[in-house]
Amino acid sequence: MSLKYAVLAALLEGEASGYELSKLFDVSFANFWASTPQQLYRELERLERDGLVRARVVRQERRPDKRMFSLTESGRRDLETFAAAPPKRPTAIRDELMIKIQAMDLDGVDPEATCALVEERATWARAKLDRYARVRERLLGGRTEEEFLRRADRIGPYLTLMGGIAFEEENLRWCERVLAVLRSRAALS
Amino acid sequence: MSLKYAVLAALLEGEASGYELSKLFDVSFANFWASTPQQLYRELERLERDGLVRARVVRQERRPDKRMFSLTESGRRDLETFAAAPPKRPTAIRDELMIKIQAMDLDGVDPEATCALVEERATWARAKLDRYARVRERLLGGRTEEEFLRRADRIGPYLTLMGGIAFEEENLRWCERVLAVLRSRAALS
DNA sequence: TTGCCCATGTAACTTGTTACATGATTGT
DNA sequence: ACAATCATGTAACAAGTTACATGGGCAA
Questions:
Q1: Where are the domains of chain A?
Q2: Where in the numbering of this chain does the Transcription regulator PadR C-terminal domain appear (chains A, B) (predicted)?
Q3: What does each C-alpha distance from B51 to A69, B8, B14, B55, B113 come to in angstroms?
Q4: Which end of chain A is more exposed for a tag (fewer CB within 10 A), N or C?
Q5: B16 near B24, Cβ under 8 Å?
């Protein structure tokens, strides 16, 4: 139900193809709404059928044709209504690593293996933070954060990005605390 | 695929009924693996059929019968294998509020309404933190964190709880920053 | 020459959600 | 009297995942 609104919100940035949206959902949108390219293509079909989005075919040379999607007036109105209404469902998280941590104390589980998993997570978190930093610079466009937040027309995308950055930073801190604990326990035995 | 392991990991705490598991998934497990009671009942059926879990019917007076589930040896081994293997899928988050924030700059969206949504989120975050604090006290059982992390047999559940607490604290800080921004913009116009 | 990028899609399958049903007990 | 708690479940539906297919361009 909400992937619909995630797509509409993504199209606020302007016209985009399914492929471009799938890239966007891989970087910034992934922080709060996970989805695969297949889901997006399916959703776009539905949104077009329902008149919330319109498609324009762009012929390309030496590249497959692409369909550029944009919001219709009715899509925009629907999104406005959604944006002011209270959320229907609580935030859902699905993080396999945490299940593995929950079960790490089992006899058959090598603490070294657990360490490796946490280190991998930390590496990913750092990579994500790097990408966010670049997106942030682009959004700020030379202004300071304070200046931007006071004057810019659209601050929504910046506020969600702030959320993503804070989340990954916290993630990284957690990884480091866990690694410190695991290492000091390894030293004891 | 991983709800399976989330359930097995939950049963590490000991025998539990479907109902009790659904309570657990509502409090601590919800931080990293969301699921509804109906999913749990279905999953438990499957796990029993596959021999990873065994059920024992407990007759009760003045209460419906209940089925208490516990891990079998093969369930435990399966969980051990899972715990040491790298995650198959990246962490997925689905947070409606963030979509609403992303779209908040639309003309038809009242900034007051957006504020109210963020305040509600902050209230929930505080309530969650309260509950986590109680779970934490129970786990520590009077010891300090340092002492606990050095000597306890099972630290997995504490580490995931630490993650949940850090996540909610960050959430709350984000809410407060957003509210400060929204209020100072409201004062300007 | 292997593999990734662009660009879209179909089909089969697995998960997750929602609404409903039962029925006694306990608390306000 | 009404709602919540305990305790489980069915059925219908919506959403998400995985594997596969197409086919030229481009870089190491």
A1: 3-84, 96-188
A2: 93-183
A3: 49, 12, 17, 10, 51
A4: C
A5: yes
- Measured CA to CA, the distance from residue B185 to residue B188 in angstroms comes to 5
Distance CA A23, CA A18 (A): 9
CATH architecture designation of domain A3-84: Orthogonal Bundle (1.10)
Which residue of A80, A167, A174 is in closest CB contact with B108?
A: A80
C-beta separation of B12 from A102 below 8 A: yes
Contact B135, B161 (CB under 8 A): yes
Q: Which residues from chain B sit within 8 angstroms of residue A81, using beta carbons?
A: 108
The burial of A65, by beta-carbon neighbours within 10 Å (0-12 exposed, 13-18 middle, 19 or more buried), is given as exposed
pLDDT tens for each residue of B116-164:
999 999 999 999 999 999 999 999 999 999 999 999 999 999 999 999 9
Chain A CB within 8 Å of residue B70 CB: no
Longest dimension (CA), chain B: 66
Q: Considering only residues 150 to 189 of chain A, which have any Cβ-Cβ distance to chain B shorter than 8 Å? A: 150, 153-157, 159-160, 162-163, 166-167, 169-170, 173-174, 177-178, 181, 184-185, 188
pLDDT in tens, chain A (189 residues): 899 999 999 999 999 999 999 999 998 899 999 999 999 999 999 999 999 999 999 998 778 889 999 999 999 999 999 999 999 999 999 999 999 999 999 999 999 999 999 999 999 999 999 999 999 999 999 999 999 999 999 999 999 999 999 999 999 999 999 999 999 999 987
pLDDT at B189 > cutoff 90: no
Name which of A25, A100, A107 to mutate to probe chain B: the one with the most chain B Cβ atoms within 10 A of its Cβ.
Answer: A100
Locus of tokens 């969650």: B128
- Length A26 CA → D27 C1' (Å): 24
What letter represents residue A93's amino acid?
I
